[in-house]
Each structure stands twice: as structure tokens, then as C-alpha cells.
């Protein structure tokens, strides 16, 4: 079964940086070791936030991790059928 959140169009299955923990942030996909929603990082980037700003907002993540999340998301988008 795909690790797809009801509000997300990203299949996080296979992303080593992302996990789901029942009861932690309602079981939504989060960055390991944090309570940061993986989708939030990607959405910030898509809204035009510079990587440095995202890093300032989420200092627990390295720039490399932020780039990996964005790259994974871009490669694993699920096309929704209307």
C-alpha cells in the first residue's frame, strides 16, 4: 500500500528520510527524528521559499536533507484521476 496521505499527492514509500508513526502527528508522513511534515518542506519550496529560509525555519534538517526531500517528492508524485 502506498504511503500516501489523504491531502498529499506524494508517495513517500521508499524515502529513507520519511516515516509514519501511528499517533505521532496523526500518522502523517514526517521527517525521521522530528515532527516535521514532509509535505510542508516540499510545499514551502514550491511556494518559492529559498532553501536557506526553509533551513532557518527547520534547523533540525540539513540543507542536504531538504534537497533530498524535494527531489524525492518531485520524482514520486501521484497523478490524481478526476
Can you walk through the features of this model?
Residues 1-6 have low confidence and may be disordered. This protein is mainly alpha-helical and 82 residues long. It has helices spanning 38-46, 51-57, 63-75, and strands spanning 18-19, 30-31. It is globular and about 30 Å long. It has a single domain (18-75), classed as Winged helix-like DNA-binding domain superfamily/Winged helix DNA-binding domain (Arc Repressor Mutant, subunit A), CATH 1.10.10.
Give a summary of the structure in a few sentences.
The chain is mainly alpha-helical.
Helices and strands in order:
Elements: E1 18-19, E2 30-31, H1 38-46, H2 51-57, H3 63-75
Antiparallel strand pairs: 1-2
Helix pairs in contact: 1-3
Number of domains: 1
Order of helices and strands: EEHHH
Summarize the biggest pleated sheet. Answer: 2 strands, antiparallel
CATH architecture label name? Orthogonal Bundle
- Net shape: globular
Low-confidence stretches: 1-6
Structural class: mainly alpha
CATH topology: Arc Repressor Mutant, subunit A
Average of the residue pLDDT scores: 89
CATH class: Mainly Alpha
Beta-strand residue fraction: under 5%
Number of helices: 3
Helix content: 25-40%
Radius of gyration: 12 Å
Amino acid at each position: 500500500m502506498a504511503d500516501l496521505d489523504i491531502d498529499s499527492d506524494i508517495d513517500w514509500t521508499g524515502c529513507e528520510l520519511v516515516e509514519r508513526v501511528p499517533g505521532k502527528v496523526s500518522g502523517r508522513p514526517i521527517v525521521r527524528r522530528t515532527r516535521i511534515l514532509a509535505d510542508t518542506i516540499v510545499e514551502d519550496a514550491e511556494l518559492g521559499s529559498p532553501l536557506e529560509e526553509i533551513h532557518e525555519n527547520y534547523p533540525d534538517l540539513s540543507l542536504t536533507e531538504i534537497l533530498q526531500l524535494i527531489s524525492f517528492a518531485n520524482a514520486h508524485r501521484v497523478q490524481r484521476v478526476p
